[in-house]
């Protein structure tokens, strides 16, 4: 174990450590912009391009970039020599010299890493003002790409090309003209982009941000003709509080409902209700395929980033996903049919707003084949957890004093099985809780399937359904999904059911969640919180949800009925 000195303090570090790791171990700090390492899930970015992390190393003439410089025995590191600080200031001033100076109206204002490092380094003026990049913005339903704000950290490239293996973003040109963008300068909408938002999740500036619909949602709430209902996704309740200074993993379901009421929504409903409904349809389809020789393995279909990935990358598997629409879309269909009819409201006057942890949900809401009516969309506006936090802040509500309120019913009642949709392995587990009882006719006493829990990116579990072994594959991160699907295609693995989520840890790590700043522990805490929501639920199986039973009795007849198919199912495109 080499001994090194960080600012004169001696510490032992692991072999092959970098200076940055040594500094972190010593409890010190050097700023970074391009460095990112989510070690547990295999995302690493260290092009050493920004040079913000330079430090002084005794005996070395040039300053050393901490993120890539290996330590050696007896190394003496000074993180804050005047020379190192001045070099960092110059680096940041040069970056700012070609950066739009519009911080006050920038969507990342307050969340921008470049802005906070500039402030940390006390940069109040800039001697290097010169030529400026002038690119057009690329605006899609989910993502806004502003190359003028790109600082060439390459994090988005790593997220898209190495982690997701979608390969849409890459660095082009040289020198001052270098920028990260899609091939041929195409708009993201014209590429294979899945809108997973993982590039947005890691972008340190506003070069990549969500397309926000905050003003549109306020306008709907203000419109007296409109009956505005809102649904909240499973993963939002375990992350929103982070935006208000609470620890990752804080559960704020009651406050979430309370604040949406205070904001003026007519009804506050739960996507979890629709997740239970999804299980009714998906488990029916799974049992049918299993018993009657349908296409196997069955793939889950609730993650829109994954569905788009499948359509582009695995067209030969187009018959494999469940035809069940995602909970977001099922909720919209039921709100504009069953709920509107029961309350005598013209569905054209019902506005459905979704609060989602995800950017691909914005894209999903615009897919025609997911809308049951030709006259209106299932879901009108999708905003992210981050956008909701902005609306709460803008309204001046003090998060800590928001009262805890319960969801409205009937579209607000849900089970623990629905809650776990928000974490990796949860959709498969929820489906099996129901399928087990339907197949065996017996009560499932131990509802948690251990093999479906955990943080590994690819997991295979075998579940015994009274002598019939069901093999379940779970994968998150599209690159891992690719590996699993290739193993199945090439006969190295055989499974019956596959749950796929595009984002790290499932929806809890979605591209619309509060920024995790490269720390996977944040995502793990959210997963634990999701499990707590399940474990403290009185009902933990979707088919036991009383409001779901009533919906079938009064309206849909039974899972897989003609009406269910019209409202709750879809098809995919090669
Ligand atoms: Fe998800 Fe889903 S779990 S996709 O991860 O099936 O976004 O939270 O809302 O639709 O329920 C996201 C989360 C979400 C859907 C559900
Ligand atoms: Fe790549 Fe996902 Fe970003 Fe699209 S949204 S560019 S697929 S990382």
From TrEMBL:
Superkingdom field: Bacteria
Keywords: 4Fe-4S, Iron, Iron-sulfur, Metal-binding, Repeat
Residues annotated as domain 4Fe-4S His(Cys)3-ligated-type: 83-122
2Fe-2S ferredoxin-type domain boundaries: 2-83
Signal sequence annotation: none
4Fe-4S ferredoxin-type domain: residues covered: 141-171, 184-213
Record-linked Gene3D superfamilies: 3.10.20.740, 3.30.70.20, 3.40.50.1780, Fe-only Hydrogenase (Larger Subunit), Chain L, domain 3, Iron hydrogenase, small subunit
Annotated PROSITE patterns: 2FE2S_FER_2, 4FE4S_FER_1, 4FE4S_FER_2, 4FE4S_HC3
Pfam family, one: NADH-G_4Fe-4S_3
GO molecular function: 4 iron, 4 sulfur cluster binding; ferredoxin hydrogenase activity; iron ion binding
Entries under NCBIfam families matching the protein: FeFe_hydrog_A, FeFe_hydrog_A6
Protein name: 4Fe-4S dicluster domain-containing protein
Lineage of the organism: Bacteria, Thermotogati, Thermotogota, Thermotogae, Petrotogales
